[in-house]
């Protein structure tokens, strides 16, 4: 009986694997993507990369410019994530099952969060380009809107998960809604919420590069500039700067997370 | 003896089909310790929560301390809730906060939104909280975070939080269901003591029939949302038990010894 049960599980896993491989094959034939070709082009790309895509002493004359843009990008990423977090917290409180005021508002807030979350940040950047033109403000708004959608959803789930027990207990004492939020909901979910904001800042820095290319601002813009000028050495310096800053930010946020627990 | 709480034809329906309470009538006198017993899903939790309007009854009338509970407005509801302390099976504490902060939460009902949100408490309130913590044997845990406490200690913090409210009645929803026998005894002794020394009325939902028989002045038995027994512990016959739980007391494996003190009482 038990053997049979385990066998069935194994078979269904195998079936799932087969379906996956099938889909991959179908997709490859449809798009005429060839594994052999793509693998054989890897060495060529590597050779090109090694012979062109590295910073030279010359490109370091651009270093101050790059740092300036990098700073702009970091600030925009952090600002958009933190301001979005405040709005997201309010919407999460309205949308969470345990703190909602009524069902209509909860559904509305969930709807808004889903709309904002399911549209990619690059789409937001393109849409906002029409109203704000090419500026860092556009980049900021694009990141803000995307962060808001994601954080609302994440916060909502966090608040749902911390549970309704203490909230019910404080309701029973006659406490006002705001007292409950600040005395129970926030203390219970704070470290999780901060963790999400840190994650959002990291995500935003990665996304800021792409958004920058689209909106002509920040580190993405300067990368695009050097790349189009075929100044690959400077472009590679930009990439290096991005990688280093992401690693540093990750270290910082890991440290903050550990300190909070 | 004055009547503190009265249920008149109270019914509660969840959605369109689940009837949790139907036509419930009973009354509770000031200073009584009343146990509510009944099988899982009988409607015990629903009944308790109708009293402080954590759940709104569908129909009927609930009179608490002369107030018509079901028709009062927001402001009076807040006032009503300050008079009703509640403790829970899962303690429902804010685990990341200290014992002291959790106990002070019991005062939030007396505060405006802003003062409550900022967590400002008077010196008298803090002094009272300390006093209560001491009387419950928690003086050494005051500054500990609640997630570091044992279940029995957490439940005592829950009791302390309810007591700083200065309530007229204490509602306890299965306060000992997650505790071992000796912690259970400590908690039940405290409840009994609160009832006797402060004259606070206690309503307690219980799954343990022996505990109900040992501690209560009166037992209310409910089954499928109806009150099927309402009387003194000594009046709880095998027949009554069968009616409440729907099966034979011997088959239930319940420890139904009659302690002498209960039999002698009244
Ligand atoms: N929020 C709810 N929505 C719908 N039905 C509910 C809800 N809460 C309780 N019920 C139903 O109402 C009935 C009574 O539930 P209640 O929790 O009051 O029982 P109980 O006597 O406290 O049970 P237990 O001993 O298991 O705690 C059950 O049939 C339950 O399924
Ligand atoms: Mg219950």
UniProtKB/TrEMBL annotation, chain A:
Membrane-spanning intervals of the chain: 74-94, 177-201, 207-227, 234-253
UniProt-listed InterPro entries: MetI-like, MetI-like_sf
Claim: Secreted is one of the keywords in the record: no
Intracellular or extracellular location(s): Cell membrane
Domain ABC transmembrane type-1 intervals: 70-253
Principal localisation: membrane
Membrane topology: Multi-pass membrane protein
A Pfam family recorded for this sequence: BPD_transp_1
The keyword Magnesium is annotated on this UniProt entry: no
Record's signal peptide: 1-26
Keywords assigned: Cell membrane, Membrane, Signal, Transmembrane, Transmembrane helix, Transport
Homology family: Belongs to the binding-protein-dependent transport system permease family.
PANTHER family named among the record's database cross-references: ABC TRANSPORT SYSTEM PERMEASE PROTEIN P69 (PTHR30043:SF1), PHOSPHONATES TRANSPORT SYSTEM PERMEASE PROTEIN (PTHR30043)
Designated name of the protein: Phosphonate ABC transporter permease
Protein's organism: Sporolactobacillus terrae
Lineage: Bacteria, Bacillati, Bacillota, Bacilli, Bacillales
From TrEMBL, chain B:
InterPro entries found in the cross-reference section: AAA+_ATPase, ABC_transporter-like_ATP-bd, ABC_transporter-like_CS, ABC_transpr_PhnC, MetN_ABC_transporter-like, P-loop_NTPase
Domain ABC transporter: 5-249
The UniProt record lists the keyword 4Fe-4S: no
Signal sequence bounds: none
Cross-referenced CDD domains: ABC_PhnC_transporter
Keyword presence, Disulfide bond: no
PROSITE patterns with a match to the protein in the record: ABC_TRANSPORTER_1, ABC_TRANSPORTER_2
Coiled-coil region list: none
Domain of life: Bacteria
GO CC terms of this entry: membrane
SMART domains the record matches: AAA
Keywords of this entry: ATP-binding, Cell membrane, Membrane, Nucleotide-binding, Phosphonate transport, Translocase, Transport
Pfam families named in the record: ABC_tran
GO MF, any single term: ABC-type phosphonate transporter activity
PANTHER family from the UniProt entry: AMINO ACID IMPORT ATP-BINDING PROTEIN (PTHR43166), PHOSPHONATES IMPORT ATP-BINDING PROTEIN PHNC (PTHR43166:SF6)
Protein name as annotated: Phosphonate ABC transporter ATP-binding protein
């Amino acid at each position: 009986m038990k053997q049979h049960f385990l066998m069935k599980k194994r078979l269904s896993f195998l079936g799932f694997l087969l379906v996956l491989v099938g889909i991959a094959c179908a997709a490859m034939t449809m798009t005429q993507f060839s594994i052999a070709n793509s693998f054989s082009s890897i060495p060529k790309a590597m050779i090109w990369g090694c012979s062109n895509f590295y910073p030279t002493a010359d490109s370091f004359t651009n270093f101050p410019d790059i740092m300036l843009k990098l700073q702009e990008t970091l600030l925009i990423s952090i600002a958009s994530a933190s301001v979005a977090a405040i709005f997201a917290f309010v919407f999460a409180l309205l949308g969470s099952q345990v703190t909602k005021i009524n069902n209509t508002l909860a559904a509305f807030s969930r709807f808004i969060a889903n709309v904002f979350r399911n549209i990619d940040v690059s789409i937001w950047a393109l849409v906002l380009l029409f109203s704000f033109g090419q500026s860092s403000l556009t980049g900021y708004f694009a990141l803000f809107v995307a962060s808001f959608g994601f954080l609302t959803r994440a916060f909502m789930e966090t608040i749902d998960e911390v549970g309704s027990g203490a909230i019910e207990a404080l309701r029973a004492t006659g406490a006002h809604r705001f007292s409950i939020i600040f005395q129970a909901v926030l203390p219970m979910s704070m470290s999780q919420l901060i963790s999400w904001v840190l994650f959002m800042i990291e995500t935003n820095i990665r996304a800021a590069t792409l958004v920058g290319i689209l909106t002509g601002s920040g580190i993405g813009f300067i990368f695009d500039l050097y790349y189009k000028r075929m100044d690959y050495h400077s472009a590679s310096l930009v990439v290096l700067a991005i990688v280093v800053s992401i690693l540093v930010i990750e270290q910082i946020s890991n440290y903050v997370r550990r300190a909070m627990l | 003896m004055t009547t503190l709480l009265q249920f008149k034809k109270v019914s509660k329906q969840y959605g369109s089909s689940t009837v949790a309470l139907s036509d419930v009538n009973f009354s509770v006198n000031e200073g009584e310790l009343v146990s509510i017993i009944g099988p899982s899903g009988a409607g015990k939790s629903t009944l308790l929560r109708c009293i402080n309007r954590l759940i709104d009854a569908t129909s009927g009338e609930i009179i608490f301390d002369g107030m018509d509970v079901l028709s009062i407005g927001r402001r009076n509801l807040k006032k009503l809730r300050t008079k009703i302390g509640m403790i829970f099976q899962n303690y429902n504490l804010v685990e990341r906060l200290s014992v002291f902060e959790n106990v002070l939460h019991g005062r939030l009902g007396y505060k405006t939104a802003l003062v409550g949100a900022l967590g400002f408490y008077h010196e008298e309130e803090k002094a009272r909280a300390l006093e209560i913590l001491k009387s419950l044997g928690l003086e050494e845990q005051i500054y500990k975070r609640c997630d570091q406490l044992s279940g029995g200690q957490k439940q005592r913090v829950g009791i302390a939080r309810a007591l700083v409210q200065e309530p007229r009645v204490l509602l306890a929803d299965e306060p000992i269901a997650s505790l071992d026998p000796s912690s259970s005894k400590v908690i039940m002794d405290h409840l009994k003591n609160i009832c006797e020394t402060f004259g606070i009325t206690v309503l307690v939902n219980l799954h343990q029939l022996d505990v109900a028989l040992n501690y209560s002045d009166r037992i209310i038995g409910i089954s499928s949302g109806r009150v099927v027994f309402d009387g003194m512990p000594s009046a709880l016959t095998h027949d009554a038990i069968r009616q409440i739980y729907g099966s034979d007391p011997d088959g239930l494996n319940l420890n139904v010894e009659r302690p002498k003190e209960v039999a002698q009482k009244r």
